[in-house]
Amino acid sequence: MYRLVGLTQGQAMSILVSMKAIATGDGTTDFGGPLAQTVRGATTHLLHIEADADELPTKLSSAELAELRGSPAVARAAIDCALLIPLTDSGQSAVVRMRRVMTLADELGIDDEVVKNTYALLVRQDENAARDMQRRVLVFKTSDPSIAIAEFERAAHEATAPPRQLEAMRALARAPEGTLGWELARYYSSTGFLPPGEKGAMPWFIAQHDFHHVLGAYDTSPRGEIYVNGFTCGISERPALDYLAFMLLQFHHCVKLSPLTPTAVDFDPDTYLTALDRGAQCRIDVADPSFDFIDRLELDLSEVRAGLGITGSGTVGADGRYDPSAHPN
């Protein structure tokens, strides 16, 4: 979703101004802290332009608004980027900034359920919005929510992984050192998680999320889950705004959207946007539900990353630990 290609310089600059206007309340508050980091990071990691965010105006002009109305794709990109501001913010000010995003969406003719759900969840943790957000995330993860629901129901009584995948996961402990399989085994050993797909473990489709933790080198602390979310959203060639909002609401805004305990942990916007950018470098959409990483288990992890175009580093260094206790918060 964040492969923002084809934007003109003027369109990209207008997106940045809209983000700064929301971050500063049209110039009524100082430009600093995590929100300023988000706008600055967007220049490098999302829009890939040279711009000094500190020198940008704090109000969107009529000409800049016209730039954003130039096409549905540009308007969509503007709202995707704008939503990062209230999602990065916290407390009541996040609600205020979310209202500004909704106003901008109306001005650009964007009628988006994810935007509406995010507002409803920030204001009152609306149950209907939560259910719709959960459904959308299951669509992102499996293409069909009924598949996910059926796997969850079966998981307590039987293996949910197909035979070939189940056999490969059971062989992880024998994988040669340095391979993707070896690192996945280290991930499960470090976190104490059972490999998905086994009876009594998480459903098989969760294995792809674990693969992304290892591929991007992100731990399983709340911050690590936020960062791997950015990585996955960057990878995806499908719209991923619902998944992005879901994870930031769950782990940064303490909105309960899953069986996991919600948190209100702070995170580093630049690390998050870097994760988005790293994911966007991926040559294949390994976030697609049809992607099968099993054939790569015997390959060296560095070879897997290089083959996919993944560069840079995450929060887990060489021989580092994935478990939350090694990464407070």
Short summary:
The chain has helices at 9-24, 33-45, 62-68, 72-88, 92-108, 113-124, 127-142, 145-155, 163-170, 180-191, 207-216, 222-235, 241-251, 269-280, 301-308.
Describe the 3D structure.
This protein has 329 residues and is mainly alpha-helical. The chain folds into 2 domains: 9-111; 136-326, no CATH class. The protein has 15 helices and no strands. The protein has helices spanning 9-24, 33-45, 62-68, 72-88, 92-108, 113-124, 127-142, 145-155, 163-170, 180-191, 207-216, 222-235, 241-251, 269-280, 301-308.
Please give the structural blueprint.
Elements: H1 9-24, H2 33-45, H3 62-68, H4 72-88, H5 92-108, H6 113-124, H7 127-142, H8 145-155, H9 163-170, H10 180-191, H11 207-216, H12 222-235, H13 241-251, H14 269-280, H15 301-308
Question: Based on CA inertia axes, which overall geometry fits?
Answer: globular
Assembly category: single chain
Question: Could you estimate the helical fraction of the residues in percent?
Answer: 55-70%
Strand/helix succession: HHHHHHHHHHHHHHH
